[in-house]
Structures are given as structure tokens and as C-alpha cells.
Write a structure and sequence with these properties.
With about 80 residues, the protein is mainly alpha-helical. It has a single domain (about 15-75), classed as Arc Repressor Mutant, subunit A, CATH 1.10.10.10. Helices cover about 40% and strands about 10% of the residues. The protein has helices spanning about 15-30, 40-45, 50-65; strands at about 65-70, 75. A two-stranded antiparallel sheet has the order 1-2. Helix 1 crosses helix 3 (about 50-65). It starts with 13 loop residues before the first helix and ends in an 8-residue tail after the last strand.
Length: about 80
């Protein structure tokens, strides 16, 4: 499992963009599986960030149809956003 807790060390685009990239990496690496239901708080802890930039990233992925976000269910990836199986 890849350690994605280094988001706070800087980088380009702010924490929202870094969270987005980290979520994409986790989905592509299949560490977040298609249809898996992940609670926002647990994901924020895993990534080492607050929930605000995480929500920004989750909603960006939802807008790209790569995931869905529900207040009850949480974050649910729809698979590799690049279309790879």
C-alpha cells in the first residue's frame, strides 16, 4: 500500500489539487476499489489532510464522473478515470 500522508509538504496547486492527485493515484493503483464505500473522515486521516481540501477533490472527481459522493455513504470510486480495466 502506498503511503499518501505527505500532502502537507508543499507542492503545486494547494491541498485541494494535491488531494485530487492523491485520490487519482489511489484509484489507479486500485487501493480504492470500484464501488468501495469510504468514509470521508477515514480518507482524510489516511491522506493526512483536513476534510475541506478532501471534499474539494472528491467533488472534482464526482464532476468528472470518476466517483460519487454521498453524505451517508461517503466517497465511492467508479474505477480508473483513464478507462483502464
Amino acid at each position: 500500500m502506498t503511503n499518501k500522508t505527505a500532502l502537507l509538504d508543499g507542492g503545486n496547486g494547494g491541498l485541494g489539487n494535491q488531494a485530487y492527485e492523491a485520490l487519482l493515484d489511489l484509484i489507479i493503483a486500485r487501493e480504492l476499489k470500484q464501488g468501495e464505500q469510504i468514509q470521508e473522515r477515514a480518507l482524510a486521516i489516511r491522506l493526512g489532510i483536513s476534510r475541506t481540501p478532501l471534499r474539494e477533490a472528491m467533488h472534482r472527481l464526482e464532476g468528472e464522473k470518476s466517483s460519487s459522493v454521498s453524505p451517508i455513504i461517503g466517497f465511492c470510486p467508479h474505477g480508473d478515470p483513464r478507462g483502464n480495466s
